Amino acid sequence: MYDWRADVRARLAGAGLHPQDEAEIVEEVAQHLEAQFAELAMTIGAEGARERLLAQLRDRGFDDAALGRKRRSNVEPRIWVRGSFLRDLRYGARSLRRSPGLVITGVLALALGVGLTTVMFSIIYGLLIKGLPFQAPERIAMIYRTDPTGRGQETLVPLADFVRYRADQHSFSSFGGYRQGRANVFGGDRPERLNVAELTDGAFEATGVRPLLGRTFTASDNETGAPLTAVISYATWRDRFALDSLVLGRVLRVNGRPHAIIGVMPEGYAFPGWQQLWVAAQLDTRGLRPGEGPAFTIVARLRPGVNFPQANAELSGMARRLAAEPTDSAALRDLAQPFVRATIPARVYALLYAMLGAVFLVLLIACANVANLLLDRAVSRTRDVGIRVALGASRLAVVRQALVESGILALAAAGVGTLLAQAGVMSFNRAIVALQADRPFWMDIRLHIPVLFFVLLVAVVASVVSGLLPALHAARLDINSILKDESHGASSFRAGNLSRAIVVFELALSSAMLLAAGFMTKSIARLGTLEPRFATDSVFTARVSQLSTDTIRQRRFLAAMEHDLTALPSVGAVYLGHGLPGGGWMGDRVAIEGHVYARELDYPMMRWLAVNPGFFTVFRVGILRGRAIRQSDRRGTQPVAVVSDEFVRQYFPGVEPIGQRIRLGVSSKDWLTIVGVIPTLYAAGIPSANGSHFPPEVLTSFWQGTDASTATVALRGPTAVANATSVRNVVAALDADAAVFEAARMSDVLNQPSWPLRVFGTLFVIFGVASLILAAIGLYAVMAFSVSRRLREMGIRLALGATGTAVVRMICVQGLKQIALGMALGLFLGTGLVRLLRMLLFEVQPSDPRVFGSVIVVLSASAFIACLLPAIRATRVDPLVALRAE
To answer: In 243-339, where do the E strands start and end?
Structure first.
């Protein structure tokens, strides 16, 4: 029988009718045409009747009749109209309320991803994006000198060039320079060693902050021979002068020289670091040629309308004019960058953004989990969706409804995630304080307003990412197939394929994150079990600085201090040196007698310390061969050195090292005779060429050195004696102007350089564990979904004689294929991620096969269990119940 409905439907295709109106017209007109066809066919034949009726159908009057049936209100003219959106919102809330398990699981998964992502973004925003706590911080520039030949050299700008630039430049509204250091400051009950900056005029003005009292430096303060002036911080004003409003004009002795206080900066002001005091630089440019004079860091503020490329173009022009005059720095280039970008090393930028990218992977895993949950829910509701579409709902309305529901989950997750982020930020700040980490003065890690907007943005992205695939899947369903598919088999099959693809994606991301977390875990474990090969228990350390420049007086003071500290009860030995083992080693190049070095880069690198004999007793460092440094090793005697066994292994293989000679530094003329060998000690900071933190080391005699103005002291004994008060009392009795600073227990000193690994490494471990849990849950959910949709198949298999073991094997093999593919992709991705994080690794190589093996075992075991549990549950289904399930 001829199908008139198809012709009528084609005729109405461009009428823009509501689906319900169109269905009614099609049915009504088709029935009328069938009746007329039956009458006409008897008189004029079937072919003639069909042609006549088709002509009537093509008549213009049919359009008018159809438009008369068109509804007055155009239903859903726009996809996000207010009424429809609110209706979908109410419907979505009611619908989700009936699925509490899905809501709880989805919200917690997304909240974990949102919370971790927000913590990482808070760190980046507070350190890198927010900028300095001054007006228009993005316009504050630092100008420094770089080497364009690619050797990576960065230096400060010599005074002669700084003065020329300041006179000729037009890009900056203020232009100043500074040098940072420490100084002995006396202006109270005892001297202190404070962080001090030496500034020119224009440096304070670059920040745009006015003093709380008095004034800052002017050009007259920087003239040679001008009265020495100082500006103090609010904390110094409070602690030393009890907030006395008459503090202006008072005198502070800085390194023994009197400075008149001319200003007090506001509370919380810090620049260019954690300075407590600023002094006016004395600039003597007489006779200086380009490239000469003391070096300064230049700080400036861009004029309105000037950007950094324009400022750098002007600097390049001035540098070319200076290069016309022969100087050693003619090959260097001066570069202006935003202050924060110039201060934070590029590798730190790379590390933090790599970590942000990594935590976004965790968020994607969470979104994939929720997408799988919603996909499962969409399959369960395919009949509902089909009926809605059949009754006139548009495909866009179906997509909108699905996105609204995922949006509800994402917004709820954003609220919970914000609470998790707040807890994470508080924990991060507590860790920084507890580890006494050195941090930039502008670092402010908290949930700023832009961070909260970031949370909202992440929630929107998460709702789209997690809801779009299920929404599109629901919208593409064929209505006829849905209404005819009693078992949902076809729709379940299509959803199952999509769901398994999502799980492969989850496993790949999780493998990458878990691999990085594995390396971080091993690094932290190695750090926690580190044996530095020197003792840190019951050791107190401090640094002592003298004002005297008389080397004879300096040595007498240190010798007397060593004697008096040794005489304290329960103190058996005192260490004096230029630094502490662990983080205090100094790096330099070494020359081995008998070797020829064509270039400076050919000289091998090593670490060294100048120590007194107390080093070996205080830190309990034994001698493997030869002897230790003695009190008799003083100036005028043969210069001696004690080397580590790693030094011997690398530079004297198969040769007796005792009696061999070495020279420290490329330009040094003094040869040192090796008199002893010690075990290689731990050295924090940049590892040796082979990645080890136990590099070649050299100890020299402290009493044979020249610089004795500042010394590190360490003494072993009970806390009641070995403390800051004891050291300060001894020092004050010998020299009232000498300052004691950086007092700390040796265990704290040893831990301090490793805080980035402890903090950021722990964060990465958290990221990895979270991704593992989310991926395992996602895989379990997919396998459970697959098993639930195949209950009839399982029942048939069991009824036909299949064993439970065979069913478990079949399901697990299906899951293992996804696991293998996801892990292969993830390990490849994770290898690149680990190399980005290489600077955080501690005594672990990025290609360590044991870490790869451990990650594969952990992830495989977790994924296998996630497959096994649904498989075992499938074998417990009664075949008769399964066969009647539909």
So the answer is: 251-254, 257-264, 277-280, 295-302, 333-338
Q: What angle do CA 615, 621, 625 make, to 5 degrees?
A: 110
- Nearest CA among 391, 439, 358 for reference residue 766: 358
Contact 844, 519 (CB under 8 A): yes
Among 156, 166, 142, residue whose Cα is nearest residue 332:
156
Beta-sheet pairing, 710-716 with 539-545: antiparallel
3-state per-residue secondary structure call for 363-392: HHHHHHHHHHHHHHHHHHCHHHHHHHHHCC
Q: Fill in the DSSP letter of residue 754.
A: G
Which residue do the tokens 């809605």 mark?
A: 388
- Determine the Cα–Cα distance for residues 86 and 670; give it in Å rounded to an integer: 85
Q: Determine what percent of the chain is predicted with pLDDT higher than 70.
A: 84
Q: Provide the 10 A C-beta neighbour count for residue 647.
A: 27
In this structure, what are the phi and psi dihedrals at residue 708, rounded to the nearest 5 degrees?
Answer: -135, 15
pLDDT at 487: 45
Helix (H, G, I), strand (E, B) or coil at 330: coil
Which residues fall within 8 angstroms of residue 160, CB to CB, at 6 or more apart?
285, 288, 289, 290, 291, 292, 293
With beta carbons less than 8 A apart as the criterion, state whether 98 and 343 touch. no
Q: What pLDDT is attached to residue 503?
A: 76
Both structure tokens of 488: 């949902």
Q: Which of 515, 528, 526, 365 is nearest to 858 (CA)?
A: 515
185 with 194: CB under 8 angstroms?
yes
Alpha-carbon gap, residue 177 to 296, rounded angstroms: 6
CA–CA gap between residue 198 and residue 217 (Å, rounded) = 11
* Percent of the chain clearing pLDDT 90 (strictly above): 26
What is the DSSP secondary structure assignment for residue 886, as one 8-state letter?
-
User: How do residues 393-415 score in pLDDT, each as one tens digit?
Assistant: 666 776 777 788 888 888 888 99
Supply 382's token pair: 């395919």
- Both tokens of 124, joined, read 């980046």
Cα dihedral across residues 444, 449, 455, 460: positive or negative? negative
How many CB atoms are closer than 10 A to CB 579? Answer: 17
**Side chain identity at residue 68, one-letter code:** G
SS3 172: strand
Q: Which of 273, 294, 281, 217 is nearest to 254 (CA)?
A: 281
CA atoms within 13 A on the CB side of 449: 0
161 with 291: CB under 8 angstroms? yes
Amino acid found at 47: E
- Residues 6 or more apart in contact with residue 231 via CB below 8 angstroms: 204, 211, 214, 216, 217, 261, 262, 263, 264, 265, 277, 278, 279
Q: Which of 617-626, 782-791, 823-832, 876-885 has the lowest mean pLDDT?
A: 876-885
What residue spans define the domains of the chain?
4-68, 154-331, 348-530+755-883, 539-753
Q: What is the pLDDT of residues 290-347, one digit of tens each?
A: 778 888 999 999 999 999 999 989 888 887 777 666 554 445 577 889 999 888 888 7
In the block, tokens 């973004």 appear at 121
The model carries a pTM of 0.76
